[in-house]
TrEMBL record:
This is Thioesterase. The chain crosses the membrane at residues 49-73. Belongs to the lcsJ thioesterase family. Keywords: Membrane, Transmembrane, Transmembrane helix. InterPro entries: HotDog_dom_sf (IPR029069), THEM6_lcsJ_thioesterase (IPR051490). It holds the Pfam family 4HBT_2.
Length: 345
């Protein structure tokens, strides 16, 4: 399991360090003669080579050294500073949308975005989603000695630094993305079980799809919601999808695994539910009978039954993905031999 970061270090260490670095850079910028330097850059000897190099760097900035770190930490800082204090319950399964563009250095010999580069984009897209949706809850769960949200079998508060572990990523490629072509990453929570939080991300043609609304301030154009007579929603939006990925995250306090529902609930996104219910099962492990899902004026009420219905719908896909963990047992160490060992792997 690969760790993708710990917010126990982010807030006390990286935020102050980043603020100090920006303050120093701003201070030094006042003493730099930008106009003189820019004029020499554009008109001095060797200007053609410098301008071409600058254009190349601009077109490929996301593939440069430390660019991934800048993109991920930008997501953290952005939502720390600009996230709304309260999100509506329906936001739990809503999409987080972020945009990008294929750089030349991401292009493979088939002249489209290399399959391996999708995973760096996924890191950024998931960082936006999880920080925006669950950021405040992470700080609350991280201070578990005070808040006592996570208890061990003896009823004692679990201690340790809060972190997020990346368990696995699956990506299904449908269409290629051309060099310098823009695209959007639509990420949302798919489901969760006792251990894993599942996230689905769609790589979508840029500008072709717009949401019907925003949770909070307006962040771009929207489209009208159209519902057919039989209740089905119109529009085959999948035709605009380049690829779809599923990720599973695990929340940790030290070495203790935290139920995803605890983190979601700590952020106020789980409605009141029957005693003992968490993530669709009672304390005895028996699935809860949902009965009829309530509707008011054609809109589904976001009570615990609706949340559980959405969780089970996504879990139908997530369970198949999770079952692939068993393929680890297929490795036999070359019991019957191997075809060879090759350089530059």
């Amino acid at each position: 399991m690969a760790s993708v970061g710990t917010l126990s270090l982010f807030f006390p260490v990286f935020v102050p360090a980043s603020a100090a670095a920006l303050a120093y850079a701003g201070h030094r910028a006042f003493y730099f003669h930008w106009r003189v330097w820019l004029w020499k850059f554009l008109t001095g000897p060797g200007r053609n080579s410098r301008v071409l190099l600058l254009v190349f760097l601009v077109l490929n900035w996301k593939s440069l050294p430390l660019a991934w770190t800048v993109r991920v930490f930008h997501a953290f800082l952005y939502h720390v500073l600009r996230r709304p204090k309260n999100l509506p319950p329906r936001a739990l399964f809503h999409f987080s949308i972020s945009s990008s563009r294929t750089s030349l250095l991401e292009t493979d010999y088939n002249m489209h975005k290399s399959n391996s580069t999708y995973f760096a984009d996924l890191d950024v897209s998931r960082s936006h989603l999880v920080t925006h949706l669950l950021g405040p809850a992470m700080a609350t769960v991280g201070d578990n000695a005070k808040n006592r949200l996570v208890l061990d079998k003896d009823g004692k508060a679990v201690t340790g630094g809060f972190g997020i572990g990346l368990g696995a990523v699956f990506c299904s490629f449908r269409r290629e993305i051309a060099p310098l072509e823009g695209y959007e990453m639509w990420s949302r929570i798919l489901s969760w079980d006792r251990k894993w939080l599942y996230i689905v991300t769609h790589f979508v043609v840029k500008g072709k799809v717009r949401p019907t609304g925003w949770d909070g301030r307006r962040m771009g154009p929207t489209r009208n919601r159209v519902v057919l007579a039989d209740g089905e929603k119109s529009g085959d939006w999948s035709k605009h999808v380049f690829a779809t990925a599923i990720t599973k995250y695990v929340f940790k306090l030290g070495r203790f695994t935290v139920h995803p529902a605890i983190v979601i609930e700590a952020n106020g996104l789980l409605p009141p539910r029957p005693d003992g219910w968490r993530g669709g099962e009672s304390e005895t492990g028996t699935p809860v009978d949902l009965g009829d899902i309530a509707d008011v004026d054609g809109e589904t009420v976001w009570d615990w039954k609706h949340v559980e219905q959405e969780r089970r719908k996504g879990l139908q896909y997530a369970e198949h993905f999770s079952a692939l963990d068993g393929t680890n047992s297929l490795f036999d160490g070359g019991e019957d031999g191997s075809i060879g060992s090759f350089p530059l792997g």
